[in-house]
Amino acid sequence: MTSFAAERARRTTQVDRWLAELLGAEPGVALVAVGGYGRREMLPRSDLDVLLLNGGRDDIAGIADRIWYPVWDSGAELDHAVRTVPQARRVARTDLKVALGLLSARHVAGDPDLTERLRAGALEDWRAAAPTRLAELHAAHDERARTSGELAFLLEPDLKEARGGLRDVHAIQAVAAAWVAPAPGPKVRTAYEQILDARHALHEITGRRLDRLVLEEQDEVARALGLLDGDVLLRMLAGAARTIAYAVDHAFRQADRLPSRSGAGNRQGRRLRRRQAERRPLADGVVEQDGEVVLARAADPASDPPLVLRAAAAAAQAGLPLAPRTLDRLTECPPLPVPWPAAARDAMLSLLGAGHAAVSVWEALDTEGLVTALIPDWERVRNRPQRNPLHTYTVDRHLAEAAARAAALTREVARPDLLLLAALLHDMGKGWPGDHSVTGEVVARDVVRRMGLPASDGRLLLLSTASLSVLGYEHSRDEPVIRLWNDDRHVQT
Fold first, then answer.
1. Domain segments of the chain: what residues?
2. CA distance 350 to 430
3. Which among 381, 423, 387, 386 is positioned nearest to 404, based on CA atoms?
4. Percent of all residues in the chain with a pLDDT value above 70, rounded to a whole number
5. Hey, which end of the chain has fewer CB within 10 Å, N or C?
C-alpha cells in the first residue's frame, strides 16, 4: 500500500520554514504549531493551527499581522490565536478542544523557552485535572460515535470523526498524556497511518478538505493508495477502525477507574494512583481483574490450545472485555487439533450462547487474528463490505450479530447448538465467487469437519447454506421452522 507519510513530513517542513521566515528574528515571541500541524500531519488541504505566544511585546499585533496576512493571501485556511502562556493555559482549562490541541504543541520559530513553558504548563494542568478532563473526553467520544457512526461498518465513513477513526487515536494519546494508559502501540499506529493515508488521498483527488469518503471517490482513492478497488479499501479501513476502536475502549476503561475527585492524590511527576486490583476466578486459567478478563498467573497458553475459546467464553458469559495483554498471550496458544476436542466445541457454544455480549469478545479475538486461527475460512469474509441497503454490517460482523440474536431463541429449539453454529456460518460463502448459498455449503462443510461434529449433525447444519435469505431448522417432531432472515435489523420467527 502506498504511504503518504513522507509527503506529509515534507509539507510540514516547508510550512515551518515559511512561517519562520515570516516571523524573523523577534525576541519575546514564539510560533507554536498545534493540532494536526503540531503532529506534522500536513495534508494537501489541511488548515494551519498556529498559536503566536507573546512574552510581553507591546507590538505583538503588528507581528501577528506580518504572519497572518501572507498566509491568508496564499489561500491557506488559518486557525490562529495570539496569547500569553498564562492566557493559553486559562483557555485550555475550560475548552477541551484547545486543551487537546496544546497536548500536541510543537515549537516552530521564535523563543523556544516560551513554547516549553506552554507545553510543560499544559501537561501539568491536564494531569492535575485528569479525572474531570478524561470524563469530558469520554463524553465527547460517545457523542461522536452517536452522530458519526462506526467507521468499520459505514459504506461512506467519516475518516476523522466516526468511531474507530483518527479522533479516537488522538483520544488515546490524551489519556496516555495523563499517565493513565499506554500510548498507542504499533498496531494502532499502523491503523492510524492507513486511515490518515486514505484521508490524504481524498484531499488530493477532490482538491477539498473532506473527511467523508463517499462512494464515488472510493475507487480512485483506492488506486491512489495502490489498492485494487473500493471494496479492498473499505476492508482495509474496517480492519484499521476495529483495531482503533478496541484500543480506545481499553483506554477509556483505564480512565474510568480514576478517583472521581480532580487531582486527588496527584502531584506533578507522580502517576495517578488506582485501587489495588482484585482477581476473581471465571474459568480454568481465566480470572477477572479491574473489570477485564485476564489469564491466571499459572495459565500456560503454549500448552493449552482450547484456552483461546475458554477465555473468550468466560469473558462473554461474564459480560466483560478481554484485556489487551490477554489477547497478546492468547496468540501463544497452539492451533487446535482437527477435529476439535469436545471442550473446545463446548467453549465455542458457550461463547456464542452469551448473546450480545459475545459480539465485542468476538471482535477482540478478530483484531488479533485469533478467529482466523480457529476458522481459517473466516479470512474470506473478514471486514468484507456488503453494498446493499438491507445490511448494516460487514459480512463477518453480520455473522457474529446473527449468532448473538439467535442466542435469544435457543430455548425454542431442540438443538440450540446447531442453531448457534448455523447463524454463525450461514453467509460464509460470501467470500467466494458465485452464489454464496452454494459456495457457503462447501465452506461450512470444511468448518463442520474441523469442529468435529457428528455426521448427522453436520448434515443438518449444512442445510443452512441452501438459501440466500433464510435459515431453516427442524426443531421438533412437528417440524416448525425458525427463520433467521438475512437482515441485520431484525430476527423474525
1. 5-128, 144-256, 275-355, 375-493
2. 26
3. 423
4. 89
5. C
Percent residues over pLDDT 90 in the chain: 77
Cβ atoms within 10 A of the Cβ of 220, count?
Answer: 16
Query: Model confidence at 172, in pLDDT bands (50, 70, 90)?
Result: very high
How distant is the alpha carbon of residue 15 from its chain centre? 31
Q: Is the peptide bond before 337 cis (omega within 30 degrees of 0)?
A: no
What class has domain 5-128?
alpha beta
Mean pLDDT of 116-124: 97
- 463 pLDDT exceeds 80? no
> Which of 106, 10, 112 is closest to 51 using CA atoms?
106
User: 0.85 exceeded by the pTM?
Assistant: yes
Poorest-pLDDT segment among 166-170, 255-259, 300-304? 255-259
Q: Where are the beta strands (DSSP E) in 171-329?
A: 279-283, 286-289, 292-295
What is the Cα–Cα distance from 149 to 143, expressed in whole angstroms?
10
Question: What is the predicted pLDDT for the residue at 276?
Answer: 56
| 392 DSSP assignment | -
How many degrees, rounded to 5, is the angle at CA 253 between CA 251 and CA 256? 110
Question: What's the CA gap between 203 and 221, in Å, rounded?
Answer: 9
Q: What angle do CA 28, 30, 31 make, to 5 degrees?
A: 155
- Ramachandran category for residue 208: left, alpha or beta (phi over 0 → left; psi -120 to 50 → alpha): beta
CATH of 144-256, one of 2.40.128.20, 3.90.650.10, 1.10.10.10, 1.20.120.330: 1.20.120.330
Q: What average pLDDT does this structure show over 248-252?
A: 96
**Half-sphere exposure of residue 247, counting CA atoms within 13 Å on the CB side?**
33
Residue 96 in this model has a pLDDT that exceeds 80 = yes
